[in-house]
Amino acid sequence: MSDAGIPAFTPADLAAVAARWGLDPDLVGRLGPALDRMRDTYGRVRTLATEGRAPEPPPVAVTRVPRGPDNPHGAWLYRVDDPGRHGTGPLAGRTVTVKESIAVRGVPMTLGSRLMADFVPGSDSAVVGRLRDAGAIIAGTSVCEDLCYSGSSFTSAHGPVGNPWDPRRAAGGSSSGAAVLVATGQADYGIGTDHGGSVRNPAAWCGVFGLKPTYGVVEYDGAMPTERTLDHIGVLTRTAADLVPFLEAAATPPTAHESYADGYARGITGLRAGVLAEGFRWPDRSDPRVDGVVGESAWALERLGLTVSEVSVPLHRHGRDVHLPISIEGGLTTVFESRLQGNNHLGPYHPNFGEAFGRALARSPEDIPVGGVLALVGATLLRDATHGKVMAYAQQVRARLRAQVDRALREVDLLVLPAVPMPPHPLPADPRAAVIDTDLPFEMHDNNCVFNLTGHPALSVPCGFVDGLPVGMLLVGRPGTDARLARVAAEFEERVFRCPPPPPPLPGARDELPTVRSGR
């Protein structure tokens, strides 16, 4: 075994790699000495990276929260007793829950999966560190979907997360637990990741605000990557005004001359809102009642001093089509082939995280969720069949889509459309069958995933109800106008619609959650 901890390669290893790539086995067999030199180099790199490393911080007191009276919706994963390094910044004394796909020092980071049940990060993610510096109290971690491969809330290895308005229905995902904990007042902020709508889906279905900021303004370091050009850190809050302290604490300022607080303080009279025609009336998916509530809310912006008109982004209708090859082929590379690291980028990289995930894949591939298996197999077959050509086409169409959105946002200041085209669906009794046989894990992505492709800030705003279940209106702005969206949302909340808190769970309501296994 070399200093890198890699056993010497056997003739069987060499024969296997020759067969995998269609190479001459005799040639590969003669490469042993050169491969040994490579292994030695790997050992030297390991030594360089680990020498002089800071000692591990002291352990953190964490408590697993079982489903029960204190966790009736199944939203909590761990509670944390960690005073941290609370400052006196914009989040002083505010409580935060963190999606379990984002590192919190000393707290198991399971990714909603059996695969990573034993992984405990030794340091905070960048966003958690910045929130601590701003005075926030990290209260614990929230349940997410298994490897984040669902926009609903029934695939987590920890069990389903019930909607706070009706526990028999989905809360939305994959940041499901974070939305529920904010909606029910158990935390001031919920931090999540958003790859195709994973913050805004549950925000819309749980009746809270959910912001996917402008791409890159919140550092992604320390969160599970799925496809680096789609991945965003987002936030959930009960009020629109609470979005600004988060941005002040966690995000890079939009310009060198203006803070988010300054942008929020600007008036909104005279802004132009464009009702995005292609965001409504999705064939076979839109609920006309949702379209109606969002449409009425969009035109109600005139009462706030905005002018409202209809605009068009023709490629919006194909956003989900474009998202698929980019997300699954990028996920094949990032999640599975490079063990959550990705390749050929400037960072961040997390060696221990990647090693833990790689060992888990080798040890128990049967624990890959069925949604992950679908993505892994589909991406492998389709990439091999097309040699990556269709993914490259998708990237070209993506650029055209971004240009169309930018063009629309030169005509108006913000776009308005439904965040999710339908109300929350019932939690399925058989999640495995639901993933294999239905579109339940992804039916809600049509509108939200477009703005992961384009990187524009997008904010889900509670705007009404259908059958007693919340509806979200999506506001989309130019890059860097996150605070302006928050101000429009705050005025809407103050003068048009303020979502009430959900009713408290009835005694025994936790028993209404379906008893299901995770979706594998």
User: Spans of 5+ residues with little confidence (pLDDT < 50)?
Assistant: 515-520
Beta content comes to: 5-15%
CATH superfamily of the largest domain: Amidase signature (AS) domain
The H/E string reads: HHHEEEHEEEHEHEEHHEHEHHHHEHHEEH
Instruction: Tell the overall outline.
Output: globular
> Total strand count, please?
14
Helix content: 25-40%
Mean of all residue-level pLDDT scores: 93
Supply the CATH class of the largest domain. Alpha Beta
Task: Give Rg in angstroms.
Answer: 23 Å
Strand order of the largest sheet: 1-2-4-3-7-9-8-13-14-12-10-11
- Architecture of the largest domain, according to CATH? Alpha-Beta Complex
Would you tell me which CATH topology of the largest domain applies?
Amidase signature (AS) enzymes
Query: Count of helical segments?
Result: 16
Number of structurally distinct domains = 2
Main sheet characteristics: 12 strands, mixed
By secondary-structure content and strand pairing, the structural class works out as: alpha/beta
EC number: 3.5.1.4
Protein name: Amidase
InterPro entries: Amidase, Amidase_CS, Amidase_dom, AS_sf
Organism: Sphaerisporangium krabiense
Describe the protein.
- By secondary structure, this protein is of the alpha/beta class.
- It has 2 domains: 13-50; 61-512, Amidase signature (AS) enzymes (Alpha-Beta Complex).
- The protein has 16 helices and 14 strands.
- It has helices at 11-21, 25-29, 32-50, 126-133, 176-183, 200-206, 243-250, 260-265, 288-300, 319-337, 351-363, 370-386, 389-411, 431-437, 450-454, 482-495, and strands spanning 61-64, 76-81, 95-99, 137-142, 162-163, 166-170, 189-194, 209-212, 232-237, 272-276, 307-311, 414-418, 458-466, 469-477.
- The strands form 2 sheets. The protein has a 12-stranded mixed β-sheet with strand order 1-2-4-3-7-9-8-13-14-12-10-11, sandwiched between helices. A two-stranded antiparallel ribbon has the order 5-6.
- Strand 10 (272-276), helix 9 (288-300) and strand 11 form a beta-alpha-beta unit.
- The protein is globular, with a radius of gyration of 23 Å.
- Keywords: Hydrolase.
- It is an enzyme of class 3 (hydrolase).
- It comes from Sphaerisporangium krabiense.
